[in-house]
């Protein structure tokens, strides 16, 4: 037997498999083509991609044949999970691990199995690219080499899907956090247009999301605060700062003044090119008004205090 490959316990291995998001996806024609080619090159009537979860072997791609879920205890490919190299069983009836398997003893009468492990970048074996035949046989050295190559190509497909799945989930989490943030949040273009805003910002300035999409932050910023704001923006775009914070005033839709605490950062691409601004806006109008009242009260109390008599 080949040396064990995966360093993960079973729960972690299944979790990594789940991260790929491939257990429930529809058929992928590229993978179906790989399966057909593997069967043709290896000279067998049937090839498939088997993904092994906690309880099942899921035959996801079978050269155009609909997928199939099998109990894990009847799985050939489950025996590949601790393999670093393809498992080849030339005569299933003569191997005690498989001789009593229903796929061997039943009407299907499978006699040959080979499976190349599908290995994630972490080293977790997700399942196998499998081959079966209805007569005992073996693989030639070139066929065995081809099976390894096809398995790596399958994982290239899977890794791309995993990356896409991770990106989609990240975007969903960002959208949820963005939409439900307790403070105003906006994605702002380099020219100042509001590209995306949340409900909290609409509550602060009185404009709907649609109305804000037709505005710039310059339109809403109090004229006395605009130049200071633009100076901070230039510092970001010219690389002199990574973010800035300031208190400023917005014009509310109804004409009143709204004080906010503004925090702005600049998003860049991998090459460092500026993409857009991320603005976080907290309404501090009431807080400033309360501080003003306290200051006024303290001033009044101080002016009404009796003067000290000195001799």
Structural class: alpha+beta
Ranges where pLDDT stays below 50 over 5 or more residues in a row are 1-6
Tally of separate helices? 9
CATH level-4 homologous superfamily of the largest domain: GAF domain
Please report the total strand number as a whole number: 11
Task: Kindly report the average pLDDT value.
Answer: 89
- How many strands, which pairing sense, and closed or not: the largest β-sheet? 6 strands, antiparallel
Query: If strands are numbered along the chain, what order do they take across the biggest sheet?
Result: 3-2-1-6-5-4
- Sum up the overall morphology in one term: elongated
Approximate helicity band: 25-40%
- As for the number of domains, it is 2
What is the gyration radius calculated from CA atoms?
A: 32 Å
The end-to-end distance, rounded to whole angstroms, is: 106 Å
The sequence of SSEs as H and E is HHEEEEHEEHEEHHHHEEEH
Strand-residue proportion:
15-25%
| CATH hierarchy, class of the largest domain | Alpha Beta
User: In the CATH scheme, what's the topology name of the largest domain?
Assistant: Beta-Lactamase
Q: In the CATH hierarchy, what is the architecture of the largest domain at level 2? A: 2-Layer Sandwich
Descriptive report:
Residues 1-6 have low confidence and may be disordered. The strands form two sheets. Strands 3-2-1-6-5-4 form a six-stranded antiparallel sheet. It has a five-stranded antiparallel sheet with strand order 8-7-11-10-9, with helices on both faces. The protein has two domains: 10-164, GAF domain (Beta-Lactamase); 179-284, Beta-Lactamase. The chain is of the alpha+beta class and 311 residues long. Strand 7 (184-188) and strand 8 form a beta hairpin. The chain is elongated. Helix content is 38%, strand content 25%. It starts with 9 loop residues before the first helix and ends in a 7-residue tail after the last helix. The longest helix is centred in the middle third of the chain and has 39 residues, at 141-179.
